Amino acid sequence: MNTTGFGERAGFTRAAKTAAAAFILLALSSCSRLLGYGVLLWSIDDPSVAAGTVLPVHIRSNINGVWVVSAEDEAGGKARRFELPIWKLEFAGSRGKAEAYSEAFSEFASAYAEAVQDGLPIRAEPDNNANRNYRLKLGQVVKVIGRAKGNPAMSGDSPLPGEWLKVLTDDGQIGYCFSYRLRLFRQERGSPVAAPAAAESAEADPKLDLIFSTAWHPEVYKEMIDTKRIDLERFSASWGFFPGQDTGIVRISLPKLELSYPYSAVAPVRDRTWLFEGSRVQASLRSDTVLSVQYIDAGGAQRSAVFVALPSSAEDFIARETERRDSLFRSIFRLGPIFRSENYGTLAFTSEGGFAWTGYDILVPSIIPSASKGTGRASLRLFLSDDLATAYSGALSLSFDPAEISSPVNFLYTLEPGGLRLEYLPPSSLEGVLAQRRGPSPTVIFFSSAER
Predict the structure, then answer these.
(1) Phi, psi of 218 (to 5 degrees)
(2) CA–CA distances in Å: residue 113 to residues 28, 163, 280, 340
(3) Angle between the 314-335 and 220-227 helix axes, to the nearest 10 degrees?
(4) How confident is the model at residue 47, as a pLDDT?
(5) Hey, how many other C-beta atoms are within 10 angstroms of the C-beta on 395?
């Protein structure tokens, strides 16, 4: 059975059809009316035309992805028509609109930039958390077409110098790139833009992308989440491993440790392991949610740390734990907020979490430090073991003024119809933020609720 297509049966080879299409396009362009005017975004060499030039536009071919425009070569000669990739021209319509755009664009007409970091992302919006549209190769040149307001790239808590630039790649991708890892330069009029031959978009690496796109936090966070005992003094969104795709600075931030290492590229060492070149930091992806990092500390010693991806953001868990504590405090406050005891004085709470305790002399210094002023902050930072949780409402921590008294005084508490029952919880009963057991000789205090 003859399966030759109609065009082939008629003697039309692919080359012949391409030539015919080109002939039709040229014929149309020779007789078509002017579509309007546009502004050249990226300088061209043949003919030699600088970016920012207003060009007459004769036709647009979506099939071939080109404009047919005309221009005089800057080196001289008659105007001629030629094809221009659609992404290289901003079509404005009227000459007046094109000239207005050209004037606004003049600041950036000769502005280009070179990536000084392999894998530098171009994002959909001027924000580190926006989707990445493109990844630049080390040395790749882009055209700067504007600047944008956005959230600055950060190194720890400090913003990095630079700004968000709207850029155009040499294959027509448009997005935003932070300038900190770009080398900005101006094209000399009449000279070509130097774009290295190797400047191609970096090949997609889904596992490396996962490292860059995931928020990595200390492994201990997962244990806190699994046990539902989040210690807010050891759980912060600012602690973790930050690969710095936009900044070229990889950071390791842990309690009492803050290290930063500039790097130029991320190179595979073996399967699921990468080296941040120039930094001596190596990251190994154990699973999609567990990352092992090896680094050199400030003293030159080899160290390692494990980081995990959380099921939701660290900020979400902090907000939930804060609300849990606030809810417990509100229960105490509603029962009082003033409580009185014949032997242990008066304990009053403020709606903001403050307290004032007077008449507690009998508890000094065995429980309450002698230097305390009787005022301070109340918190619900402790958790109860399963055994204690069946008998007590929670654990109340009172941090006394002045601030030099570093350790809070902790009590198990029970809310009762007539008031608040406190039972002193000695440090020996605690394991971290977990109250494991009652004290050996418990001191129990009952406060009656005073009338408001």
Answers:
(1) -55, 145
(2) 38, 13, 27, 71
(3) 40
(4) 85
(5) 24
Task: Report the Cα 428 to chain-centroid distance in Å.
Answer: 41
Provide long-range contacts, Cβ within 8 A and 24+ apart, for 344-349. 344/445, 344/447, 346/450, 347/420, 347/447, 349/378
**Pick from 338, 359, 351: which is nearest to 448 by CA?**
338
Q: Does the structure show a pLDDT above 90 at 159?
A: no
Single-letter amino acid code for the residue at 249: I
- pTM value is 0.70
Structure tokens at 63: 């099939």
Q: Which DSSP category does 44 fall into?
A: B
Per the structure block, which two tokens stand in for 54? 């207003």
Predicted pLDDT at 73: 67
HSE-CB of 252 using CA atoms within 13 angstroms:
24
| Closest C-alpha among 22, 18, 69 to residue 47 | 69
Task: Show the tokens assigned to 50.
Answer: 């600088």
Helices (H) and strands (E) in the chain, counts: 7, 34
**E-only strand ranges, 279-332:** 281-287, 290-296, 302-309
Q: Which two tokens stand for residue 410?
A: 């902790």
With 0-12 / 13-18 / 19 or more C-beta atoms within 10 angstroms meaning exposed / middle / buried, residue 24 is exposed
E strand intervals along 193-289: 216-218, 240-242, 249-254, 257-262, 265-270, 273-277, 281-287
Q: What is the number of alpha carbons within 13 Å of residue 142 lying toward its C-beta? A: 32
